[in-house]
Structures are given as C-alpha cells and as structure tokens.
Amino acid sequence: MVTLGKLPTKRIVMSVKMQRRLFTVQEYHLMNDAGIFGEDDRVELIEGEIIQMAAINTRHATCVRRLIRQFRQLPEESAFLDVQNPIQLNERTEPQPDVVLQQPRADYYETAHPIPSEVLLLVEVSDRTVDFDRDVKVPNYTSSGIQEVWLWDLEANCLEVYRNPTANGYISVQKFERRETVSPLAFPDFVLSIDGILG
Q1: Count of other CB atoms within 10 angstroms of residue 10
Q2: What is the extent of the structural domain holding 130?
C-alpha cells in the first residue's frame, strides 16, 4: 500500500459567460399555441425574454378604468381603444400596455397585432413596476418609433409624458401633477384631468 502525501492543489478560476436563450415573437406565439402558458399566466415578451407581469392591484385597475371611461368619448372612426392587449414592436418584443389608442382598421386587427406606426398613444399604468416601465419599456417604445407614451406613476401621483422619439430617446419629456390637464398629441382638443384619472 502506498500512501500519497498531500497533493498540491491549484485553484482554477474559469470565466464562463452564460448565454440566455432569447425568443422571437413567432416562437412566443407557438409556445402559447402549444399550451405552455396557462389561461391565467400574465406574461409579455420584452427584448426576447418572457417576463412575468405583476398582479394588478385595485388602484392600478381603477386608474385603467378611469382612462377607458375618458377615452371612450373619442369617436371610433378617430381611434380604436385597446386595453391590455399586445402590440408588436419588433421581432423580439411584444408588450401588453395597459391602454392603447390606435388607428382604426377595417379588420379590427384580426389579422395581426398593432405595430408602432399604428399606435397613436400608448399608456402604461405603474405602481410597483415603475422603474421597469421607465427604464426598459419606454426605451423600447422610443426605439420602435411610438410617437407618444404616457406613464402614470401611481407611487408619485403624477403622469410622465414622452413625445417625439429619436435614436437617443424622446425629445420631449414632461411631468404633469395634480390640478393639471393633458391632451394627447393626436387629439389636442381632448383634455384629461390628472386628478380625474388618479382619483
């Protein structure tokens, strides 16, 4: 029997870069068709990643309802009102914004989800997700060319309005607070009260 002495040990440090598997919108739809997502799963595709959406609390839902009530006053021939349905920004991003005003289309978008050029106004209502919406979603909306985005920040009780996209972000960023009013670029005569939406 041979007894070996303590063998010298070397610490080997290896740098391994983990690769993420990013999905296309087409693959995302195929997964949905195959039943991978349940009926109650709230997910969206952002930059190729499937993101679990936050549960909708009562204040968020109420804000969306107030927006719906106001936007329903617009004639249907001017804009379709869509709520928490997908829009396809590019081949790897298909978010589900809270409210969208989009160009009317004869097929009611039966053949395809709206694309950025068909979006007149996109609205996100944010409470716990405000940082993600501002830092991830808004830049995606900018780069896809959506002309106007409203971000209702329920934590700060204000509205952030992003207008006129460029390669470096939106040219115009404004904040509206209580006792102020705002109008969408596409409908300058249509006035909404910040208090009326925030409650």
Answers
A1: 5
A2: 57-198
- Read off the tokens for 103: 């160009």
Residue type, 11: R
Residue 29 lies in a domain: no
**Which contiguous run of DSSP H or E holds residue 181?**
strand 181-182
Residue 72, token pair as written in the block: 């329903």
Tell me the one-letter amino acid at 61: A
What is d(CA 124, CA 5) in angstroms, rounded to the nearest whole number? 67
CATH of residue 92: 3.90.1570.10
Which pLDDT tens digit goes with each residue over 113-156?
999 999 999 999 999 899 999 999 999 999 999 999 999 999 99
Which helix or strand (DSSP H or E) is residue 166 part of? strand 158-166
Among 70, 96, 93, 69, CA closest to 83? 96
